[in-house]
Amino acid sequence: MRAGISMALLWLAACPGGDIDLPVDGGFGVDGGQVEDGGTPARPDGGAPLSDGGQAVGDAGGPGHFLLEATEADPVLDEAILEAMADDEIVGLSFAVTVGRELRYLEGFGAADREQGIPVDPRRSLFRWASVSKGLVGLVTVHHQLHAGLDVAADYRELAPDLGHPTAYLPLGCGAEACALPLPADHPPINLRRLLDHTAGVQHYSNGLEDPTPPLEMINDPEVNTGMAWALDRFLNQPLVSLPGQRSSYSSFGFNLAGVVLERDRGRSLAAQVEDVIARPLGMTSLSPDHHWHAHPDRVRGYFRNRNGIQFNGDDDVSWKLAAGGFQSTPRDFATWCAGLLSDELLNDDEKFERLWQPGEPIRNYAYGFELTWDRRGNLSSIGHGGAQQSVRTALRAYPEEGLCFTLMSNSTWADASGLLRQFETVWRGAQE
Question: What angle (nearest 5°) sits at the alpha carbon of residue 299, between those of residues 141 and 138?
Fold first, then answer.
């Protein structure tokens, strides 16, 4: 951890506090931007299981952890990160590199909480994942498809018949209720595959008739906010923004619907499913839903910047959109997720390339919560995602053929996480030549 080595942080103590709401979680180059279960086994480190909303403390990376410690000093990369942070007044940041199962680089820079003088600790500080959470849902879905016969092509009402369903859609060019059309009885199904590829026609925040985000007083009230299902009708009662399968339209609310469908079909909370399928096999002891009402000393404070300077960004609950962007972890466990994706620990290569990272119609650059890039020969080049949310910016980029992963987390909401990741990736690759 590089605590105290950035001179650029000295000026931060003088900046005033404040707060703002940023109710968005954008994708990586896309759109610009909990039910009770029968119990979940305890974590191997004694921390709280994902499904009860508890917060595990840090991640020691001890026995049972997937990643192998192989970090190496990289003063050139350190300096590049510090320089970029100083240039853009970034408060706190962590960057990691994994090769295969080896953790080659993991550092934290700047402040996790500048008011309290707490530095970023990549093995302890808890950052929100924002929209990078979507890949967790995608992998859990494919796992159930392969091992439990989940039908991802079935209309979601076959899996969760108690849920509501849209009755209208907005034809191309229509942005008002007056031009909305009834949803045809024989419309293509809204299914898990389309929901997780953003082709189901479900709206995002601002592209429908109205933003379905619930009021903050409801979001931050655990008596009202009991998971994801309670907020579904706010968009299911509105028109779709297209017919299902007609075109791509990024939608966090579509992922929320998919998360609830998985809960209904499996009879377990989404958090418990992520614990079983992903967190426990990889030893990710810090991965958890970020519940606003559970105080945790290691949760980073987020910041926004305006003409008055850098200010505290507030802390509103995001667990109500758990599937779309409600998980949190340490930077080390964020890197573990990326490395685990490329290994055979969660899915083998055939399952990943033929299912998880196989795009459906009518798009080619997105599948199951991952952005896909292709080389000139039509081979998959990289997978990734990014997140933009109150208190955080995140980015993940992985190269399956190289077994190489880069991850970045920052508590400065003006940070260009994907751009910084590419910049630091270039520096790291240059040092390997």
Answer: 10
pLDDT in tens, 321-370: 999 999 999 999 999 999 999 999 999 999 999 999 999 888 889 999 99
Cα distance between residue 409 and residue 415, in whole Å = 10
pLDDT at 45 exceeding the cut of 50: no
Instruction: Note the pTM of the prediction, 2 decimals.
Output: 0.88
Separation between Cα atoms, residue 242 and residue 239, nearest integer Å: 8
Q: Would you say residue 39 has pLDDT above 80? A: no
Quick one: what percent of the chain has pLDDT higher than 70? Answer: 85
DSSP string, 116-153: TTEEP-TTT-BEE-GGGGHHHHHHHHHHHHHHH---TT
276 contact partners, CB below 8 Å, separation of at least 6: 40, 268
d(CA 346, CA 357): 14
HEC-encoded secondary structure of 262-303: HHHHHCCCHHHHHHHHHHHHHCCCCCEECCCCCCCCCECCCE
**Cα Rg of the chain, angstroms:** 21
Contact 325, 129 (CB under 8 A): yes
Q: Give one DSSP letter per residue of 293-358, joined into a string.
A: TS--TTBPPPEEEETTEEEE------GGGHHHH-EEE-HHHHHHHHHHHHSTTTS-HHHIIIIIT-
Q: Mapped to the 3 state alphabet, what secondary structure does 185-219 carry?
A: CCCCCCEHHHHHHCCCCCCCCCCCCCCCCCCHHHH
pLDDT in tens, 352-362: 999 999 998 88
- Whether a cis peptide bond, with omega within 30° of 0, leads into 362 is yes
Q: How far apart are CA 208 and CA 254, in angstroms?
A: 13
Domains of the chain, each with CATH number or no CATH: 7-136+288-432 (3.40.710.10), 140-266 (3.40.710.10)
Query: pLDDT band at 433, cuts 50/70/90?
Result: confident
Q: Tokens for 246, please give them.
A: 């007609």
Q: Specify the pLDDT at position 63.
A: 58
Spatial contact of 400 and 383, defined as CB atoms under 8 Å apart: yes
Q: For residue 352, what are the β-bridge partners?
A: none
Task: Work out the average pLDDT over 359-386.
Answer: 95
